[in-house]
Each structure stands twice: as structure tokens, then as C-alpha cells.
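Appendix B. Chain record.
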Amino acid sequence: MSTQPRQPHELNHVRIFDEGAVKSRLNDLTAIFVSELATEEMRKINDKAKRQFKTPPVCDWSLQQMVDKYEEQAQKEAQKVLEQERLFYVDSISENIKRTLTQIAKQLRFMVWSVDENEKPYKLQIIVEKAMKPDYRGNWDFCDTQYVGEHDFERLRQIGLVSARLDEFRDYAPYFNEDLKKLWSDAHDLAHLETVRKGEI
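C-alpha cells predicted for this chain:
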């Protein structure tokens, strides 16, 4: 196994974001880096001895000694490789992400903005109020109900469905380029509606 970052065509979401796959990848890379760091240290010791015209010492470090000495640094190097792979992968699918985020933002913009009687645009709020509803036994009781506009429950449901699509890209967001960061931020701003309780509006 190489310590070089894998290329985008070798990667998918599971390989670089799934908890189990990530743990396995980091463990494998850490073991290789421990070996490489120990080998490099031994080479330096041998080179120094040769420059001083001395017999190179026998390096009989045990595996545990190498792990104890180099594991922390090796783990940092392994994490760098994983982060580079994530950057490579997200960059390789950035055009698809851009198209999807643009579509989500367009849909949300249409759904969350409205105009008042004076044709002035305003962003919808989620309105919460008490309503009488039956429970599973048929007994009626007060409970919270939510809607937007004039008791538009369906519109709120649609906004929720479109907003939920943003979760598809949550793992990728830290690796977005500047254009995608702006699209991501704009879409999230649109998806966030202020919640107010009726009577406090």
C-alpha cells in the first residue's frame, strides 16, 4: 500500500467518509508511516556513523518501540493523506454538487419568499400555535401545530423536503471551493425560517 493519496476515480463517499472505512484507512496508513519514519531514522543513524568512519550500530528496535516513538507523528501524516483524498474527491464531483445546490436554492427561493398586500417581498416564518387534535385513543387534547402563511401546511412540508436535500452534502461542505461555499451558505440561509409562536408575531 502506498502513502500517496488515492485518485478520485479510486474513491467514493463510503471509502473516505464512512466511519469504519476511515478507521481502517487511517490504521493502515499509520502503520506504513511508522515503518517509513523508523526506516528514515535508521538511515540517518547509519549515514552519521559512516561519515565518522564508525561501524553503523545494529538497530534492533521492536515493533512496539517503533510504534511508541512514531505513532503520534504517523497518525498526523495519515490524517493529512485522508484530507487530501477528500479534497480530491469533492473537487471531482464539484460540478454535480454545484448544479444540485443551485437547483435547491432556486426551489427554496420560490417557496420561502412571498409578497404582502403592498407587493413588498418578505420571507415566510414558521408559525406555531396550539390546536385541538385527537390522540391515538381518540381523546382530544391541545398540541402544537406548525405552518407558514395562511395555515399552509403543505408548503411547509415541501420546504422541509427540499431543505433536507442539503444533508446530502454535509460531509462535503468542509472541502468546498469558494463558489460552492457561497452556494451552500445561500441555500442554508433560504432553508432557515424564523419560528414564531402565534400571539408573538
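Further analysis of this model is presented in Appendix C.
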